[in-house]
Specification:
single chain, 600 residues, mainly beta
Length: 600
Protein backbone atom coordinates (compact mmCIF):
# COMPACT_ATOMS: atom_id res chain seq x y z
CA UNK A 1 0.00 0.00 0.00
CA UNK A 2 1.38 3.40 -1.02
CA UNK A 3 1.75 5.75 1.89
CA UNK A 4 0.14 9.16 1.25
CA UNK A 5 1.70 12.44 2.28
CA UNK A 6 0.52 13.78 5.60
CA UNK A 7 0.17 17.45 6.44
CA UNK A 8 2.09 18.83 9.44
CA UNK A 9 0.99 22.45 9.92
CA UNK A 10 3.07 24.83 12.06
CA UNK A 11 0.78 27.69 13.07
CA UNK A 12 -0.14 29.89 16.03
CA UNK A 13 3.57 30.22 16.69
CA UNK A 14 4.52 30.13 20.38
CA UNK A 15 7.98 28.56 20.45
CA UNK A 16 10.31 31.41 19.57
CA UNK A 17 14.08 31.25 19.73
CA UNK A 18 15.14 28.06 21.53
CA UNK A 19 18.74 27.12 22.29
CA UNK A 20 18.48 24.86 25.32
CA UNK A 21 18.36 21.69 23.17
CA UNK A 22 19.64 20.47 19.84
CA UNK A 23 17.49 21.57 16.86
CA UNK A 24 15.89 18.14 16.37
CA UNK A 25 14.62 18.15 19.99
CA UNK A 26 13.03 21.58 20.18
CA UNK A 27 9.28 22.25 19.81
CA UNK A 28 7.65 22.07 16.37
CA UNK A 29 7.05 25.84 16.29
CA UNK A 30 10.42 26.80 17.78
CA UNK A 31 13.42 28.16 15.92
CA UNK A 32 17.14 27.52 16.37
CA UNK A 33 17.84 30.96 14.85
CA UNK A 34 15.38 33.86 14.98
CA UNK A 35 17.04 37.14 14.00
CA UNK A 36 15.13 40.35 13.30
CA UNK A 37 11.79 38.55 13.42
CA UNK A 38 9.35 38.08 16.30
CA UNK A 39 6.23 36.16 17.23
CA UNK A 40 3.23 38.45 17.43
CA UNK A 41 -0.30 37.20 18.06
CA UNK A 42 0.51 33.80 16.63
CA UNK A 43 2.25 35.16 13.54
CA UNK A 44 5.91 35.16 12.56
CA UNK A 45 6.71 38.70 11.46
CA UNK A 46 9.78 40.71 10.57
CA UNK A 47 10.59 43.53 12.95
CA UNK A 48 10.15 47.06 11.73
CA UNK A 49 13.03 49.47 11.42
CA UNK A 50 13.90 52.94 12.65
CA UNK A 51 14.36 56.42 11.22
CA UNK A 52 15.97 59.61 12.45
CA UNK A 53 13.83 61.54 14.91
CA UNK A 54 16.11 64.50 15.73
CA UNK A 55 19.74 65.33 16.53
CA UNK A 56 21.07 66.69 19.82
CA UNK A 57 22.48 70.22 19.54
CA UNK A 58 24.44 72.69 21.61
CA UNK A 59 23.73 76.41 21.33
CA UNK A 60 26.40 79.11 21.00
CA UNK A 61 25.46 82.78 21.33
CA UNK A 62 27.54 85.87 20.61
CA UNK A 63 30.64 84.17 19.19
CA UNK A 64 32.88 86.93 17.80
CA UNK A 65 33.84 87.09 14.14
CA UNK A 66 37.27 88.69 13.86
CA UNK A 67 37.26 89.13 10.08
CA UNK A 68 35.31 92.44 9.95
CA UNK A 69 35.78 93.00 6.21
CA UNK A 70 33.80 92.31 3.08
CA UNK A 71 33.71 89.40 2.41
CA UNK A 72 33.99 88.03 5.95
CA UNK A 73 35.53 84.55 6.09
CA UNK A 74 36.49 82.20 8.86
CA UNK A 75 35.72 79.00 10.75
CA UNK A 76 33.25 78.63 13.58
CA UNK A 77 34.70 77.37 16.86
CA UNK A 78 32.39 74.33 16.98
CA UNK A 79 31.16 72.00 14.26
CA UNK A 80 29.47 70.19 12.58
CA UNK A 81 26.74 72.80 12.37
CA UNK A 82 23.14 71.59 12.45
CA UNK A 83 22.01 71.65 8.82
CA UNK A 84 18.62 73.32 9.32
CA UNK A 85 17.06 76.72 8.61
CA UNK A 86 18.25 79.45 11.03
CA UNK A 87 20.84 77.19 12.67
CA UNK A 88 23.40 80.00 12.17
CA UNK A 89 22.68 83.74 12.30
CA UNK A 90 25.43 86.32 11.69
CA UNK A 91 24.86 89.90 12.87
CA UNK A 92 26.81 93.06 12.03
CA UNK A 93 25.49 95.21 14.86
CA UNK A 94 27.20 98.59 14.31
CA UNK A 95 25.48 101.44 12.47
CA UNK A 96 22.57 100.01 10.53
CA UNK A 97 22.42 96.40 11.68
CA UNK A 98 22.80 93.70 9.07
CA UNK A 99 21.73 90.10 9.56
CA UNK A 100 22.38 86.98 7.51
CA UNK A 101 20.54 83.74 8.32
CA UNK A 102 21.56 80.27 7.19
CA UNK A 103 18.94 78.78 4.86
CA UNK A 104 19.51 75.09 5.63
CA UNK A 105 20.91 74.48 2.16
CA UNK A 106 24.48 75.75 2.30
CA UNK A 107 23.68 79.44 1.71
CA UNK A 108 22.33 82.54 3.49
CA UNK A 109 19.37 84.89 3.26
CA UNK A 110 19.13 88.47 4.50
CA UNK A 111 21.55 91.38 4.11
CA UNK A 112 23.95 89.70 1.73
CA UNK A 113 24.99 86.33 0.39
CA UNK A 114 27.27 83.61 1.64
CA UNK A 115 28.10 79.98 2.10
CA UNK A 116 28.54 77.67 5.09
CA UNK A 117 30.13 74.25 5.12
CA UNK A 118 28.23 72.62 7.98
CA UNK A 119 30.73 69.77 8.28
CA UNK A 120 33.77 72.01 8.84
CA UNK A 121 32.24 75.27 10.09
CA UNK A 122 33.92 77.25 7.30
CA UNK A 123 31.90 80.29 6.18
CA UNK A 124 32.20 83.11 3.65
CA UNK A 125 29.87 86.14 3.83
CA UNK A 126 29.48 89.01 1.37
CA UNK A 127 27.51 91.80 3.03
CA UNK A 128 25.26 94.25 1.16
CA UNK A 129 27.16 97.04 2.88
CA UNK A 130 30.68 96.88 4.20
CA UNK A 131 30.51 95.67 7.82
CA UNK A 132 31.74 97.93 10.57
CA UNK A 133 31.48 95.43 13.37
CA UNK A 134 31.35 93.95 15.79
CA UNK A 135 30.12 90.84 13.98
CA UNK A 136 28.77 88.04 16.13
CA UNK A 137 27.15 84.71 15.35
CA UNK A 138 24.59 82.56 17.12
CA UNK A 139 24.51 78.94 15.98
CA UNK A 140 23.64 75.37 16.85
CA UNK A 141 26.14 72.58 16.43
CA UNK A 142 26.13 68.83 16.94
CA UNK A 143 28.46 67.84 19.82
CA UNK A 144 28.03 64.15 18.90
CA UNK A 145 28.17 62.95 22.52
CA UNK A 146 26.30 59.82 23.60
CA UNK A 147 22.60 60.22 24.33
CA UNK A 148 22.32 59.49 28.07
CA UNK A 149 18.64 59.95 28.81
CA UNK A 150 15.26 60.30 27.06
CA UNK A 151 12.71 61.57 29.56
CA UNK A 152 9.52 63.62 29.86
CA UNK A 153 8.84 66.64 32.06
CA UNK A 154 5.21 67.05 33.20
CA UNK A 155 3.33 69.96 34.75
CA UNK A 156 0.21 69.70 36.89
CA UNK A 157 -1.78 71.03 33.93
CA UNK A 158 -0.85 67.97 31.90
CA UNK A 159 1.66 69.74 29.66
CA UNK A 160 4.69 67.63 28.82
CA UNK A 161 8.09 68.29 27.27
CA UNK A 162 10.47 65.71 25.86
CA UNK A 163 13.89 66.24 27.47
CA UNK A 164 17.02 64.68 25.95
CA UNK A 165 20.33 64.39 27.80
CA UNK A 166 23.85 63.82 26.56
CA UNK A 167 26.87 63.58 28.85
CA UNK A 168 27.08 67.36 29.37
CA UNK A 169 23.85 69.16 28.47
CA UNK A 170 20.14 68.80 27.76
CA UNK A 171 17.71 69.65 24.95
CA UNK A 172 13.94 70.01 24.69
CA UNK A 173 12.00 68.79 21.67
CA UNK A 174 10.29 71.45 19.57
CA UNK A 175 7.08 69.99 18.12
CA UNK A 176 6.77 72.87 15.67
CA UNK A 177 10.20 72.57 14.05
CA UNK A 178 10.61 68.82 14.80
CA UNK A 179 14.08 69.62 16.14
CA UNK A 180 15.81 69.71 19.53
CA UNK A 181 16.36 73.11 21.13
CA UNK A 182 19.32 73.47 23.48
CA UNK A 183 18.58 74.25 27.14
CA UNK A 184 21.17 76.84 28.09
CA UNK A 185 24.56 77.47 26.53
CA UNK A 186 26.92 75.96 29.12
CA UNK A 187 27.83 72.46 30.28
CA UNK A 188 25.70 71.22 33.20
CA UNK A 189 27.10 67.72 33.86
CA UNK A 190 30.49 66.00 33.59
CA UNK A 191 29.61 62.29 33.56
CA UNK A 192 30.94 59.63 31.23
CA UNK A 193 29.17 57.39 28.70
CA UNK A 194 27.91 55.06 31.46
CA UNK A 195 26.43 57.77 33.70
CA UNK A 196 22.88 57.49 32.42
CA UNK A 197 20.23 59.87 33.73
CA UNK A 198 17.51 58.90 36.17
CA UNK A 199 14.62 61.33 36.62
CA UNK A 200 11.46 61.77 38.68
CA UNK A 201 8.63 64.28 38.23
CA UNK A 202 7.38 65.88 41.44
CA UNK A 203 5.59 69.16 42.11
CA UNK A 204 6.19 70.50 38.59
CA UNK A 205 9.91 69.83 38.85
CA UNK A 206 11.96 67.19 37.10
CA UNK A 207 14.54 65.81 39.56
CA UNK A 208 17.62 64.57 37.73
CA UNK A 209 20.63 62.47 38.76
CA UNK A 210 23.40 60.69 36.86
CA UNK A 211 25.22 59.17 39.88
CA UNK A 212 28.16 61.44 39.16
CA UNK A 213 27.05 65.05 39.55
CA UNK A 214 24.90 66.84 42.08
CA UNK A 215 21.10 66.27 42.12
CA UNK A 216 19.38 68.90 39.97
CA UNK A 217 15.84 69.89 39.09
CA UNK A 218 14.25 71.34 35.96
CA UNK A 219 11.34 73.80 36.13
CA UNK A 220 10.41 73.92 32.45
CA UNK A 221 13.05 76.53 31.64
CA UNK A 222 16.38 75.74 33.27
CA UNK A 223 18.22 73.30 35.55
CA UNK A 224 19.33 74.24 39.05
CA UNK A 225 21.09 72.46 41.91
CA UNK A 226 18.94 70.88 44.62
CA UNK A 227 20.09 71.77 48.11
CA UNK A 228 20.02 68.65 50.28
CA UNK A 229 21.03 69.69 53.79
CA UNK A 230 20.26 67.28 56.62
CA UNK A 231 22.88 68.01 59.27
CA UNK A 232 21.93 71.10 61.27
CA UNK A 233 25.47 71.37 62.65
CA UNK A 234 26.80 72.20 59.20
CA UNK A 235 25.63 74.38 56.36
CA UNK A 236 25.39 73.83 52.63
CA UNK A 237 24.66 70.87 50.39
CA UNK A 238 25.51 67.42 51.77
CA UNK A 239 24.36 65.18 48.90
CA UNK A 240 27.08 64.72 46.29
CA UNK A 241 24.96 62.47 44.06
CA UNK A 242 22.72 59.40 44.10
CA UNK A 243 21.94 56.48 41.81
CA UNK A 244 18.15 56.83 41.61
CA UNK A 245 15.34 59.03 42.88
CA UNK A 246 11.66 58.17 43.44
CA UNK A 247 8.52 59.78 44.80
CA UNK A 248 7.18 57.40 47.45
CA UNK A 249 4.20 58.32 49.64
CA UNK A 250 4.78 62.02 48.89
CA UNK A 251 8.44 61.88 49.89
CA UNK A 252 11.42 62.17 47.58
CA UNK A 253 13.45 58.97 48.14
CA UNK A 254 17.12 58.91 47.17
CA UNK A 255 18.72 55.49 46.64
CA UNK A 256 22.44 54.76 47.02
CA UNK A 257 23.44 58.34 47.89
CA UNK A 258 26.92 59.73 48.22
CA UNK A 259 26.94 62.08 51.19
CA UNK A 260 29.81 64.41 52.10
CA UNK A 261 32.22 62.31 50.06
CA UNK A 262 31.12 58.91 51.41
CA UNK A 263 29.07 56.43 49.37
CA UNK A 264 26.24 54.57 51.12
CA UNK A 265 25.42 51.75 48.68
CA UNK A 266 22.66 50.18 50.84
CA UNK A 267 20.93 53.41 51.84
CA UNK A 268 17.54 54.94 51.15
CA UNK A 269 17.29 58.58 52.28
CA UNK A 270 14.06 60.56 52.06
CA UNK A 271 12.69 64.08 52.31
CA UNK A 272 9.90 65.47 54.43
CA UNK A 273 6.32 64.82 53.28
CA UNK A 274 5.36 67.12 50.38
CA UNK A 275 8.67 68.94 50.58
CA UNK A 276 11.52 67.66 48.37
CA UNK A 277 13.80 70.39 49.69
CA UNK A 278 13.52 69.48 53.39
CA UNK A 279 15.72 66.73 54.92
CA UNK A 280 16.77 65.73 58.41
CA UNK A 281 19.79 63.79 59.60
CA UNK A 282 17.95 60.64 60.68
CA UNK A 283 15.59 60.25 57.69
CA UNK A 284 17.28 57.22 56.14
CA UNK A 285 17.54 53.46 56.46
CA UNK A 286 20.35 51.11 55.37
CA UNK A 287 19.52 47.63 54.15
CA UNK A 288 21.18 44.91 56.31
CA UNK A 289 23.35 43.51 53.51
CA UNK A 290 26.78 44.03 51.99
CA UNK A 291 25.25 44.11 48.51
CA UNK A 292 25.11 47.36 46.56
CA UNK A 293 21.83 48.80 45.27
CA UNK A 294 21.73 48.44 41.47
CA UNK A 295 18.16 48.91 40.19
CA UNK A 296 14.64 49.64 41.45
CA UNK A 297 11.04 50.23 40.43
CA UNK A 298 7.57 50.07 41.93
CA UNK A 299 5.57 46.85 41.91
CA UNK A 300 2.16 47.62 43.31
CA UNK A 301 2.60 49.80 46.39
CA UNK A 302 6.14 48.58 47.16
CA UNK A 303 9.41 49.88 45.84
CA UNK A 304 11.29 46.74 44.75
CA UNK A 305 15.04 47.31 45.01
CA UNK A 306 17.47 45.01 43.22
CA UNK A 307 20.88 44.65 44.81
CA UNK A 308 23.84 42.82 43.25
CA UNK A 309 22.87 39.37 44.53
CA UNK A 310 19.62 39.93 46.37
CA UNK A 311 16.22 41.58 45.93
CA UNK A 312 14.49 43.61 48.63
CA UNK A 313 11.27 45.55 49.08
CA UNK A 314 11.32 49.03 50.59
CA UNK A 315 7.94 49.00 52.33
CA UNK A 316 5.89 51.85 53.74
CA UNK A 317 5.26 51.46 57.47
CA UNK A 318 2.77 54.32 57.99
CA UNK A 319 4.94 55.45 60.89
CA UNK A 320 5.99 59.09 60.99
CA UNK A 321 9.12 58.09 62.95
CA UNK A 322 10.40 55.47 60.49
CA UNK A 323 8.17 55.55 57.41
CA UNK A 324 10.06 52.84 55.48
CA UNK A 325 11.61 49.46 56.25
CA UNK A 326 13.56 46.87 54.27
CA UNK A 327 12.14 43.40 53.66
CA UNK A 328 14.16 40.74 51.87
CA UNK A 329 12.54 38.91 48.95
CA UNK A 330 15.41 36.62 47.86
CA UNK A 331 19.13 36.45 48.56
CA UNK A 332 20.16 34.33 45.55
CA UNK A 333 19.34 36.60 42.59
CA UNK A 334 20.02 40.23 41.81
CA UNK A 335 20.74 42.78 39.12
CA UNK A 336 23.88 43.82 37.28
CA UNK A 337 22.35 46.57 35.13
CA UNK A 338 20.54 49.63 36.50
CA UNK A 339 18.72 50.53 33.30
CA UNK A 340 17.69 47.01 32.30
CA UNK A 341 14.80 46.66 34.78
CA UNK A 342 11.25 46.60 33.40
CA UNK A 343 7.90 46.33 35.16
CA UNK A 344 4.66 45.05 33.63
CA UNK A 345 1.44 43.69 35.15
CA UNK A 346 2.58 42.09 38.43
CA UNK A 347 6.14 41.29 37.41
CA UNK A 348 9.60 42.79 37.07
CA UNK A 349 12.38 41.55 34.80
CA UNK A 350 16.04 42.35 35.39
CA UNK A 351 19.48 41.24 34.20
CA UNK A 352 21.62 39.23 36.61
CA UNK A 353 25.29 38.36 36.13
CA UNK A 354 24.51 35.07 34.35
CA UNK A 355 20.76 34.98 33.74
CA UNK A 356 17.59 36.98 33.20
CA UNK A 357 15.51 37.20 36.37
CA UNK A 358 11.83 37.82 37.08
CA UNK A 359 10.25 38.67 40.41
CA UNK A 360 6.64 39.10 41.51
CA UNK A 361 7.69 40.70 44.79
CA UNK A 362 7.42 37.37 46.61
CA UNK A 363 9.96 35.16 44.86
CA UNK A 364 12.36 35.30 41.91
CA UNK A 365 13.03 32.88 39.04
CA UNK A 366 15.18 32.59 35.93
CA UNK A 367 13.11 33.13 32.78
CA UNK A 368 15.71 32.42 30.12
CA UNK A 369 15.45 28.63 30.16
CA UNK A 370 14.98 28.57 26.38
CA UNK A 371 18.15 30.64 25.87
CA UNK A 372 20.22 29.61 28.92
CA UNK A 373 23.53 31.03 27.67
CA UNK A 374 22.18 34.39 26.49
CA UNK A 375 23.68 36.54 29.23
CA UNK A 376 27.01 34.78 28.81
CA UNK A 377 27.14 36.29 25.31
CA UNK A 378 27.18 39.79 26.83
CA UNK A 379 30.59 41.42 27.13
CA UNK A 380 31.58 41.08 30.78
CA UNK A 381 32.96 44.63 30.87
CA UNK A 382 29.84 46.13 29.32
CA UNK A 383 27.04 45.42 31.81
CA UNK A 384 27.08 49.11 32.76
CA UNK A 385 25.76 49.89 29.26
CA UNK A 386 22.87 47.39 29.13
CA UNK A 387 19.64 49.27 28.54
CA UNK A 388 16.14 47.94 28.00
CA UNK A 389 12.72 49.25 27.10
CA UNK A 390 9.19 47.86 27.28
CA UNK A 391 7.25 48.30 24.02
CA UNK A 392 3.66 47.66 25.02
CA UNK A 393 2.08 47.66 21.55
CA UNK A 394 4.38 44.78 20.51
CA UNK A 395 4.27 43.05 23.91
CA UNK A 396 8.08 43.20 23.89
CA UNK A 397 10.92 43.96 26.23
CA UNK A 398 13.94 44.96 24.15
CA UNK A 399 17.28 44.44 25.93
CA UNK A 400 20.27 46.10 24.23
CA UNK A 401 23.73 44.91 25.20
CA UNK A 402 27.36 44.89 24.04
CA UNK A 403 28.26 41.53 22.54
CA UNK A 404 31.59 39.98 23.45
CA UNK A 405 34.37 42.23 22.21
CA UNK A 406 32.10 45.23 21.64
CA UNK A 407 32.58 48.42 23.65
CA UNK A 408 28.94 49.60 23.29
CA UNK A 409 25.49 48.12 22.73
CA UNK A 410 25.40 46.46 19.30
CA UNK A 411 22.76 43.72 19.71
CA UNK A 412 19.45 43.15 21.48
CA UNK A 413 17.34 40.38 22.93
CA UNK A 414 13.60 40.68 22.39
CA UNK A 415 11.32 39.08 24.98
CA UNK A 416 7.62 38.70 24.22
CA UNK A 417 6.33 38.93 27.79
CA UNK A 418 2.89 37.57 26.91
CA UNK A 419 4.10 34.14 25.76
CA UNK A 420 7.69 34.18 27.10
CA UNK A 421 9.33 33.81 23.69
CA UNK A 422 12.66 35.21 22.57
CA UNK A 423 14.29 36.62 19.44
CA UNK A 424 17.58 38.27 18.47
CA UNK A 425 17.82 41.75 16.95
CA UNK A 426 20.87 43.02 15.07
CA UNK A 427 20.57 46.48 16.60
CA UNK A 428 21.56 48.03 19.88
CA UNK A 429 20.97 51.56 21.12
CA UNK A 430 22.62 53.45 23.95
CA UNK A 431 19.38 54.54 25.61
CA UNK A 432 15.59 54.38 25.15
CA UNK A 433 12.53 56.40 26.04
CA UNK A 434 9.07 57.49 24.95
CA UNK A 435 7.36 60.47 23.43
CA UNK A 436 3.70 61.23 22.72
CA UNK A 437 3.45 63.17 19.48
CA UNK A 438 1.59 66.45 19.97
CA UNK A 439 0.15 66.77 16.45
CA UNK A 440 -0.78 64.62 13.47
CA UNK A 441 1.77 64.40 10.68
CA UNK A 442 0.78 66.19 7.49
CA UNK A 443 2.46 66.75 4.14
CA UNK A 444 3.34 70.28 5.28
CA UNK A 445 5.13 69.24 8.47
CA UNK A 446 6.58 65.82 7.64
CA UNK A 447 9.88 67.30 6.42
CA UNK A 448 10.68 64.45 4.01
CA UNK A 449 10.75 64.04 0.26
CA UNK A 450 8.16 61.66 -1.21
CA UNK A 451 10.81 59.09 -2.19
CA UNK A 452 12.21 59.08 1.36
CA UNK A 453 8.92 58.16 3.05
CA UNK A 454 8.92 54.50 4.14
CA UNK A 455 5.73 54.45 6.22
CA UNK A 456 2.00 54.42 5.54
CA UNK A 457 0.11 57.68 6.04
CA UNK A 458 -2.49 55.84 8.11
CA UNK A 459 0.15 54.41 10.46
CA UNK A 460 -1.16 54.84 14.01
CA UNK A 461 2.26 56.04 15.19
CA UNK A 462 1.75 59.22 13.13
CA UNK A 463 -1.32 60.22 15.11
CA UNK A 464 -1.19 62.81 17.86
CA UNK A 465 -0.99 61.29 21.34
CA UNK A 466 0.37 57.93 20.21
CA UNK A 467 3.34 56.88 22.41
CA UNK A 468 6.44 56.62 20.24
CA UNK A 469 9.40 54.48 21.28
CA UNK A 470 12.57 56.42 20.62
CA UNK A 471 16.21 55.54 21.09
CA UNK A 472 19.51 57.40 21.27
CA UNK A 473 22.85 56.28 19.91
CA UNK A 474 26.39 57.02 21.10
CA UNK A 475 26.92 59.93 18.68
CA UNK A 476 24.04 62.24 19.53
CA UNK A 477 21.21 61.10 17.25
CA UNK A 478 17.74 60.04 18.41
CA UNK A 479 15.69 57.62 16.31
CA UNK A 480 12.06 56.56 16.22
CA UNK A 481 11.64 52.77 16.41
CA UNK A 482 9.05 50.46 14.81
CA UNK A 483 8.21 52.87 12.05
CA UNK A 484 9.80 51.93 8.70
CA UNK A 485 10.96 48.99 6.63
CA UNK A 486 14.64 49.86 7.03
CA UNK A 487 17.17 50.78 9.68
CA UNK A 488 17.73 54.46 8.88
CA UNK A 489 17.78 53.60 5.18
CA UNK A 490 19.80 50.40 5.55
CA UNK A 491 18.37 46.95 4.89
CA UNK A 492 17.27 44.72 7.76
CA UNK A 493 18.82 41.23 7.46
CA UNK A 494 16.28 38.64 8.62
CA UNK A 495 17.32 35.05 9.37
CA UNK A 496 15.01 32.25 10.55
CA UNK A 497 16.04 28.59 10.99
CA UNK A 498 13.49 25.97 11.86
CA UNK A 499 13.85 22.89 13.99
CA UNK A 500 14.98 19.65 12.36
CA UNK A 501 11.75 17.85 11.45
CA UNK A 502 10.96 14.15 11.26
CA UNK A 503 7.52 13.12 12.51
CA UNK A 504 8.52 9.44 12.32
CA UNK A 505 11.48 9.38 14.70
CA UNK A 506 9.61 7.17 17.17
CA UNK A 507 9.01 4.53 14.48
CA UNK A 508 12.64 4.68 13.33
CA UNK A 509 11.68 5.83 9.82
CA UNK A 510 13.25 8.41 7.59
CA UNK A 511 10.96 11.06 6.13
CA UNK A 512 10.31 12.24 2.60
CA UNK A 513 9.48 15.95 2.48
CA UNK A 514 7.17 16.33 -0.52
CA UNK A 515 6.47 20.05 -0.44
CA UNK A 516 6.03 23.02 1.87
CA UNK A 517 3.27 25.62 1.84
CA UNK A 518 3.54 29.08 3.36
CA UNK A 519 0.54 31.23 4.27
CA UNK A 520 1.67 34.86 3.95
CA UNK A 521 0.06 38.25 4.35
CA UNK A 522 -0.34 39.57 0.83
CA UNK A 523 2.33 42.13 -0.01
CA UNK A 524 3.55 43.12 -3.48
CA UNK A 525 7.04 43.95 -2.17
CA UNK A 526 7.96 40.86 -0.16
CA UNK A 527 10.39 38.26 -1.51
CA UNK A 528 11.82 35.53 0.73
CA UNK A 529 14.58 33.02 0.10
CA UNK A 530 14.07 29.52 1.48
CA UNK A 531 16.92 27.01 1.84
CA UNK A 532 16.36 23.31 2.53
CA UNK A 533 18.71 21.06 4.51
CA UNK A 534 18.75 17.35 5.33
CA UNK A 535 20.24 15.54 8.31
CA UNK A 536 23.13 17.44 9.85
CA UNK A 537 24.58 18.72 6.58
CA UNK A 538 25.27 22.46 6.70
CA UNK A 539 25.02 23.08 2.93
CA UNK A 540 21.53 23.50 1.46
CA UNK A 541 20.48 21.01 -1.22
CA UNK A 542 17.73 23.30 -2.52
CA UNK A 543 17.24 27.08 -2.61
CA UNK A 544 14.02 28.73 -3.76
CA UNK A 545 12.42 32.18 -3.55
CA UNK A 546 8.79 32.98 -2.87
CA UNK A 547 6.85 36.23 -3.10
CA UNK A 548 3.72 37.34 -1.28
CA UNK A 549 1.73 38.47 -4.30
CA UNK A 550 -1.87 37.29 -4.29
CA UNK A 551 -5.54 38.08 -4.09
CA UNK A 552 -7.14 38.93 -0.79
CA UNK A 553 -5.46 39.57 2.54
CA UNK A 554 -3.48 36.29 2.62
CA UNK A 555 -1.90 34.07 -0.01
CA UNK A 556 -0.54 30.51 -0.12
CA UNK A 557 2.87 29.84 -1.68
CA UNK A 558 4.18 26.33 -2.38
CA UNK A 559 7.69 24.95 -2.84
CA UNK A 560 8.09 21.39 -4.17
CA UNK A 561 10.90 19.48 -2.50
CA UNK A 562 10.84 15.65 -2.74
CA UNK A 563 13.92 14.95 -0.58
CA UNK A 564 14.48 11.98 1.77
CA UNK A 565 16.38 12.33 5.01
CA UNK A 566 16.57 11.53 8.67
CA UNK A 567 15.84 15.18 9.40
CA UNK A 568 14.64 18.17 7.40
CA UNK A 569 15.09 21.83 8.23
CA UNK A 570 14.67 25.19 6.53
CA UNK A 571 16.27 28.57 6.55
CA UNK A 572 14.01 31.53 5.65
CA UNK A 573 15.87 34.76 5.04
CA UNK A 574 16.33 37.96 3.11
CA UNK A 575 18.29 41.20 3.42
CA UNK A 576 16.02 43.93 2.15
CA UNK A 577 14.36 47.27 2.82
CA UNK A 578 10.61 47.88 3.03
CA UNK A 579 9.75 44.18 3.21
CA UNK A 580 7.98 43.52 6.51
CA UNK A 581 6.60 40.05 5.88
CA UNK A 582 4.08 38.11 7.98
CA UNK A 583 3.94 34.29 8.04
CA UNK A 584 0.73 32.77 9.43
CA UNK A 585 1.33 29.07 8.73
CA UNK A 586 4.09 26.77 7.51
CA UNK A 587 2.59 23.50 6.26
CA UNK A 588 5.02 20.63 5.67
CA UNK A 589 3.97 17.45 3.82
CA UNK A 590 5.80 14.27 4.91
CA UNK A 591 5.51 10.57 4.40
CA UNK A 592 7.54 7.82 6.11
CA UNK A 593 10.36 6.03 4.33
CA UNK A 594 11.70 2.76 5.72
CA UNK A 595 15.46 2.50 5.94
CA UNK A 596 18.41 2.62 8.25
CA UNK A 597 17.95 5.51 10.68
CA UNK A 598 20.50 6.95 13.08
CA UNK A 599 20.52 10.08 15.20
CA UNK A 600 24.24 10.83 14.99
Amino acid sequence: MVQEYQSYPILDFKGGLTKDKEPWLIAEDAFSVLTNAILYRGKLIKRRGFREFAVFVNKVTGESVTDVINPSTGTLANFPIRDTVSSAIFTDSAGTPQVMTYDGDGAFTGDGTGTLDVATGVYSLTWDAGPTGPITVDYSYEPQNPIMGIENYYTNAGVSDLIIFDTKRACVYNSTTFEFDAIGTADIWSGNDANFFWVENYKERLFVTNNSNRLKSYNGTAFSDVLVEFDTTSSGNELDTCLMVFVYKERLVLLRPTENGTSYPQRARWSAVNNPDNYTLDEFIDAPTVDFIVAADFLGDDLIVWFETSIWALKFTQSSVLPFRWEKIVDTDGSSATFALNTFSNEQVGIGPTSIISTDGIDAVDINQKIPDAVLSFDSNGFKYIYSVLIEELQLILISYPSIGSSLNDKSLALNFENNTWADFSLGFHTYGFFAEQQDYTWENIGLAWDDIEFAWDDKSLQAGYPLTIAGNDTGTVFQLNTTGSDDGESIPEDIRTKKFNPYVAQGFKARLGWVEFLLTTDLNVVLTVEFYINHITTPYLTKTIDAIGDGQKTWKRINVGAIGEFHSMRIYHDATNQTFEIHDINLYFKPIKGRFKLG
